[in-house]
């Protein structure tokens, strides 16, 4: 109740398992990966994510994920020569089943957004490959509207990446090569909205 407004910067609004699949696809396409490789990777990851969402018992989750990774890792060319199949499977299972990752894959931000009643300002760069603007801004608007929130603004900012830098491709590999910390476009958009909302909040009530 003490939160008067929220500014969301490149914030996901679609379920996080869908977000990660879309993120992987967009980055792969930007890198020039073939369509067949993208579809194969998406299918493999989708099945792993489905296991995480389906099995809530930790022992069962561990068993199902181990069986799945064992199956898809047969004759995997990426397996290091000095590592046994069991070690390789365990490494991948531990990676997928990190507590943070499990919670992430099971989380749907829309359910939280539906509870937000205060004014919201949300921006995403048009070249953001990690939180795609079209899908996430649409989902954000839908969730806020469903919750009865009418005081929100959602914008796609042209030419900016996930960190709101002016960029060429939007690939994460560009982040450290761009000297700009954050684009003046994003700063200006935020300041303009903040000035507007603060002028309303700070007006003395009669």
How would you describe what is shown here?
With 206 residues, the chain is mainly alpha-helical. It is 52% helix and 8% strand. The protein has a three-stranded parallel β-sheet with strand order 1-2-3, sandwiched between helices. Strand 2, helix 7 and strand 3 form a beta-alpha-beta unit.
- The end-to-end distance, rounded to whole angstroms, is 21 Å
Strand order in the sheet with the most strands = 1-2-3
The fraction of residues in strands falls at 5-15%
Indicate the low-confidence ranges by residue numbers.
none
Order of helices and strands: EHHHHHHEHEH
Approximate helicity band: 40-55%
Quick overview:
This protein has about 210 residues and is mainly alpha-helical.
Can you lay out the helices and strands and say which pair or pack?
Elements: E1 6-9, H1 16-30, H2 35-54, H3 58-72, H4 85-96, H5 99-106, H6 109-113, E2 120-125, H7 133-146, E3 152-157, H8 184-201
Which features characterize this protein?
206 residues; mainly alpha; 52% helix
């Amino acid at each position: 109740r003490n939160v008067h407004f929220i500014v969301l910067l490149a914030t996901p609004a679609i379920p996080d398992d869908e977000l990660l699949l879309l993120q992987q696809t967009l980055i792969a396409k930007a890198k020039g990966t073939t369509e067949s490789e993208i579809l194969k990777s998406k299918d493999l990851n989708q099945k792993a994510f489905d296991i995480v969402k389906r099995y809530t018992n930790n022992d069962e989750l561990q068993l199902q994920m181990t069986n799945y990774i064992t199956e898809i890792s047969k004759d995997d060319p990426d397996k290091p020569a000095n590592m046994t199949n069991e070690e390789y499977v365990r490494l991948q299972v531990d990676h997928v089943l990190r507590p943070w990752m499990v919670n992430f894959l099971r989380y749907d931000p829309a359910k939280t957004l539906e509870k937000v009643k205060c004014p919201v300002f949300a921006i995403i760069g048009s070249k953001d490959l990690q939180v795609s603007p079209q899908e996430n801004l649409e989902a954000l608007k839908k969730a806020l509207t469903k919750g009865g929130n009418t005081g929100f603004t959602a914008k796609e900012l042209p030419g900016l990446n996930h960190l709101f830098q002016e960029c060429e491709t939007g690939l994460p590999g560009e982040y450290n090569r761009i000297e700009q910390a954050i684009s003046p476009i994003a700063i200006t958009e935020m300041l303009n909205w903040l000035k507007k909302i603060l002028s309303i909040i700070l007006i003395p009530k009669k």
